[in-house]
Write a structure and sequence with these properties.
With 629 residues, the protein is α/β, with parallel strands linked by helices. The chain is built from 19 helices and 16 strands. The protein starts with 14 loop residues before the first helix and ends with a helix.
Length: 629
């Protein structure tokens, strides 16, 4: 039950490359960013200018008033100066509000683009990728990883810009006020930066571990929720609880380490800033006493020293958030950078019309006749009618490149024939159907479809000519009508109902609360397993393909229901090439050919009567099944 453990000791990826890539998404909204930058400059400039005004206020107004009669003093210039300062601070506050609101639109637009690219690329990934990654691990890309990016984009990005502008402007004005005290501040700044570098490097490693641990925990939780019935049937509650405790402990340790380094940075820098302020005040006081600095300048400088260290502290905080966001972004980009499913096919499937002399021509309207459009090197085009003939020629295949799942398999399914694949679990039956769909490509041998090597056929067109009914059905959130129409999106309501009748699903559908408009959710949780399977069969029927693959299609249907749909299934299979995988051998007796597979090899082939007469493996399987039934 426990899955493979993830390697949490992996080194961090290229932070610079990831940051540049995220900024590439942000820059899609460059005009909004220009406005944000302008407002940040105004906001930070107003804050710095307001602080600098302390010097003339003290030197020109407060200092001269000492020892004078308050009634004789002229306060109008002083009040005017205070009003100017208030106006500057008000402008800064309005600019802060403006860029924060605008940044919300920028961040949401950026995340929308990233999610769009992530989801779109997932549609292009090969089936093998989903076979080797848990659903929870992939979902964590959309949840926790995107959330860490949301935080840094909506708040951290502007905070970093604002703090950077504030630090530069403050540094320039501190140099103007006192180069000596500025040198003292720079020395303390070097100490702070060394601390930020050390703690930040530790934080980056642990945030990577935390994100991977979250992905693994999410994957395990989702797997256990989906398999809760199985867990309870086999009384494995204690085992899964123990395994989750181990996974949860890994997450706790990774999160503790990551947040420990993240949280100690602010107190350290905060205390260092107080030490710096005290030293600066003492040295500045001595300079004022020595007459080398006026009172207004030291007051402004001390305020600047606080506003200089404060942004550094904020940057250190945002630096940790940035590392967490980049750790999440790396995981997102890992999926986006996964190689897409390769498709070098150039033969396409088109609607066709047939002339009286048998010639096929391409047309736009749906005629019920399909043809393979085959371009050749000399520029000519040929059209081959889609009939559904499938031929395997010495096909050998391995999922991992080490152990062969199929070994020199050859078979021929003529148009309209029903081919049954039987054998024990792991014999390679489902693998054959996966290869027909080109979910995987073969290294050895050939598979021909209507005489054309399927590697030459575009995958979308190939799969459009096939329909599959799997043992594990999947229904989408939507109405019954929409779920059946998923087989062919342009099908009319009448065609959907006809397909349901063909699969003998119409009767139970009409007894649902709203018939075909009944909403399904939770993968059709309000239906029985048999009813869900009937909808899957109806979905295949509405697609109206020349080739039909039934992978244990009736495994979840009881004997009585199976008898009711047998006639409908015969109607569905009529005139089509059908591949049937079944453990219930009574369902394959009327197959044109039965292939018995064992360890990836075809060990017997023939009709039901021929194989029974051979008294081989099929005979043993059939008689054992018959006795059980």
């Amino acid at each position: 039950m426990p899955g493979p453990r993830m390697n949490t000791g992996r080194k961090p990826k290229n932070v610079k490359k990831t940051l540049v890539r995220v900024l590439g998404y942000v820059l899609h909204q460059k005009w909004k960013l220009v406005l944000v930058l302008l407002m940040v400059l105004i906001s930070s400039g107003a804050s710095v200018a307001g602080t600098y005004f302390l010097k003339p206020v003290i030197n020109n107004f407060i200092e001269p008033l000492r020892g004078t009669n308050p009634q004789a003093a002229d306060f109008v210039p002083f009040i005017t100066m205070l009003a100017v300062m208030a106006g500057i601070y008000l402008l800064g506050a309005l600019s802060s509000y403006g860029y924060m609101r605008l940044m919300i639109y920028v961040s949401n637009g950026t995340l929308n683009s990233i999610r769009h690219d992530l989801f779109n690329h997932m549609q292009d990934l090969p089936i093998q990728y989903f076979d080797t990654h848990t659903h929870g691990e992939l979902m964590s890309r959309y949840t926790s990883d995107v959330d860490t990016l949301r935080e840094i984009l909506s708040q951290g990005f502007t905070s970093l810009m604002s703090c950077s502008v504030t630090i530069i402007a403050t540094f320039v004005l501190m140099l103007v006020l006192s180069p000596l005290l500025t040198l003292l501040i720079v020395c303390m700044l070097v100490v702070m930066l060394l601390i930020v570098k050390y703690v930040g490097s530790k934080s980056a490693v642990n945030f990577q571990k935390q994100q991977r641990a979250i992905g693994r925990a999410n994957g395990y939780i989702e797997e256990m929720i989906e398999g809760q019935k199985v867990v309870k049937v086999f009384c494995h509650e204690e085992a899964v609880t123990t395994e989750f405790a181990h996974i949860n402990e890994e997450l706790r340790l990774a999160s503790t380490r990551a947040n420990t380094f993240a949280n100690i940075m602010m107190p350290i820098l905060g205390n260092l800033s107080y030490v710096q302020y005290a030293i600066t005040a003492a040295v500045g006081g001595m300079l004022v006493i020595a007459g080398r600095m006026d009172l207004g300048s030291i007051a402004s400088f001390l305020q600047f020293s606080r506003s200089f260290s404060q942004p550094i502290t904020q940057i250190s905080q945002q630096f940790n958030a940035l590392l967490a966001a980049l750790a999440g972004a790396e995981r997102i980009f890992e999926v986006i950078d996964e190689p897409a499913e390769v498709d070098n096919g150039y033969v396409t499937l088109v609607n066709a019309k047939e002339s009286p002399d048998g010639m096929l021509t391409e047309c736009a309207e749906r005629t019920g006749i399909w043809a393979w459009k085959h371009p050749h090197e000399d520029g000519t085009l040929t059209y081959t009618r889609l009939t559904g003939e499938v031929c395997f020629e010495d096909v050998t295949f391995s999922y991992d490149g080490k152990k062969d799942v199929l070994k020199n398999v050859s078979l021929l399914a003529r148009p309209g024939e029903k081919i049954a694949l039987v054998g024990s679990t792991g014999a390679g039956k489902t693998t054959i159907t996966n290869l027909i769909n080109r979910f995987y490509d073969i290294p050895d041998g050939k598979i021909r479809y209507d005489g054309i090597n399927i590697n030459k056929i575009q995958k979308d067109d190939l799969r459009r000519s096939l329909a599959m009914v799997l043992q594990d059905t999947h229904l989408f959130t939507g109405t019954v009508m929409e779920n059946i129409r998923y087989g062919r999106l342009d099908a009319t309501d009448e065609e959907v109902i006809a397909a349901a009748k063909l699969a003998n699903a119409d009767a139970f559908i009409r007894h649902l609360p709203h018939g075909y408009d009944t909403m399904l959710s939770g993968d059709g949780a309000n239906l029985s397993q048999g009813q869900r399977q009937l909808l899957a069969i109806a979905r295949a029927a509405v697609a109206d393909p020349p080739v039909l693959i039934l992978d244990e299609a009736t495994s979840s249907i009881d004997t009585r229901t199976e008898a009711l749909i047998e006639k409908g299934m015969d109607g569905l299979m009529e005139g089509r090439t059908v591949f049937v995988i079944a453990h219930r051998l009574s369902t394959v007796r009327n197959a044109n050919a039965i292939l018995v597979l064992e360890h990836g090899e075809v060990i017997e082939r023939g009709s039901h009567d021929e194989l029974i007469a051979q008294r081989g493996k099929y005979y043993q399987l059939y008689t054992g099944q018959f006795e059980l039934s």
